[in-house]
Specification:
alpha+beta; Nucleotidyltransferase, domain 5; 3-stranded antiparallel beta sheet; 9 helices; 15 strands; binds zinc ion; transposition; Cas12f1-like_TNB; Transposase
Length: 420
């Protein structure tokens, strides 16, 4: 969005109010006795708080309702075993965002080939970059319309994301082949049929945030990081962060945001191609709660021996992998295909040719050479893992969602010789 400084301040205030409301709500909710906690009681409390607390009123009523809805959903995710309980949101570690849960007052118009106008509650008309065809104005009807929006801030500023409802004919079932996909070490995505999806920037150091930057950008980032570290070392304890240091931090953040956008763009292009080509896509399942408390730890308390603990030392980090799976899920459905998940353990150690798991078969991160004297299969380790993932699916070991929880439907244990 193209905003004036005054508009930026207004939306910033709304985002801070939304986060504060979440924290107040969490405080109130956890203080109550269990039988008193209900959606209706929370709704009444929020209405009262908005009347009594002046700075909460900057948040539009709709956005306040959206905070409650998200908070309640967070508890539901916890009760149904998908996530940890909700927690307080810290000022500096929370993505700033404001929900606009209804689309009827947005009044979107296109004013230029590349620009549109939208009405943001309590801010007014603002311009935004028209990057995707939107069902607005004459193009909108009962089936195709905008049902809401969300404002999100990153290092490059405020963005608006529209929630769109469109009518699509049911796709024909996809007749394409089956494929297993592994988040690889020597390539970002390894496919069981031997295809790889990689990108030019790919290095063995792809887990670093700067892998998506050009040589010159990487050099700039390094210089900025050194400058920031130097300035920080000169700062006395208790002294406030200087404007210069803050400006350096902002430039670092904007370079990292650029790298992240490039990574997401690549993921979109790759997953679309995969969903177009294959009818059945099989990936390994990674437990969500494990992702939250990964070996990496948090910014304040980094984990120890991270490289060893992350086991395969995956170059594609788990957040990126989770996003890939999300994209594949909805894109496969769009093209009439289907995505299955299989339990993860052992896929990188087992030989996909003979079915034996012999220690030491995986010679290095990239090379797999079977130690079974009767087999001796040799090949790319990621390719091997992808073939194992497809094999697990063909054995009927897919995870089936049951009552909101993923459970393993176990096939009878099969001897390695027949499991080939
Ligand atoms: Zn083998």
């Amino acid at each position: 969005m193209a905003l004036t400084p005054a508009q930026i301040r207004l939306i910033d205030e709304q985002a801070h109010a939304a986060r504060a409301l979440w924290n107040l709500l969490h405080d109130w909710w956890t203080m109550l006795a269990k039988h008193q906690r209900s959606l209706a009681a929370a709704d009444a409390a929020i209405r009262q708080a908005r009347k009594e607390i002046e700075w909460l009123a900057v948040l539009p009523a709709q956005a306040a309702q959206a905070v409650l809805k998200t908070y309640y959903q967070a508890w539901k995710n916890c009760w149904e075993g998908r996530a940890h309980p909700p927690t307080f949101k810290a000022r500096f570690h929370t993505v700033m965002s404001v929900d606009i849960p209804q689309g009827r007052d947005l009044q979107i118009t296109r004013v230029h080939r590349r620009w549109g106008m939208v009405t943001i509650p309590k801010v007014g008309r603002v311009r935004f970059r028209w990057t995707k065809d939107l069902p607005a104005g004459a193009k909108a009807d009962a089936g195709n319309r905008i049902t809401g929006a969300r404002l999100v801030k990153d290092a490059l500023g405020w963005h608006v994301a529209f929630r769109v409802q469109t009518l699509h004919p049911m796709p024909e079932p996809h007749q394409g082949p089956q494929v297993g996909i592994d988040a690889g070490v020597s390539v970002p995505l390894a496919l069981s049929d031997g295809n790889h999806h990689t990108h030019e920037q790919w290095r063995s150091t792809c887990d670093k945030s700067n892998a998506w930057l050009t040589g010159r950008e990487q050099a700039t980032l390094l210089a900025l990081e050194r400058r920031a570290a130097h300035r920080k070392s000169l700062r006395k304890q208790g002294e406030r962060t200087s404007h210069r240091l803050r400006a350096t931090y902002d430039r670092i953040a904007s370079l990292r945001a650029r790298a992240k956008r490039r990574a997401i763009d690549w993921q979109h292009q790759t997953t679309t191609e995969i969903a177009r080509t294959y009818g059945v896509i099989v990936v390994e399942d990674l437990a969500i709660t494990n992702m939250v408390t990964s070996a990496k730890g948090t910014v304040e308390a980094p984990g120890k021996n991270v490289a060893q603990k992350s086991g395969l030392n995956r170059s594609i980090n788990q957040e990126a992998w989770g996003r890939t799976v999300t994209m594949l899920t909805y894109k496969a459905a769009r093209y009439g295909g289907v995505l299955h998940k299989v339990p993860a353990p052992g896929t990188s150690q087992r030989c996909s040719a003979c079915g034996f798991t012999i220690p030491g078969s995986r010679q290095s991160q990239a090379v797999f050479a079977c130690k079974n004297p009767g087999c001796g299969w040799r090949g790319n380790a990621d390719h091997n893992a992808a073939r194992n993932i497809l094999h697990l699916y063909r054995m009927g070991l897919a995870l089936v969602p049951a009552a909101g929880r993923a459970v393993v439907r176990r096939a009878r244990r099969v001897k390695p010789a027949t499991a080939r």
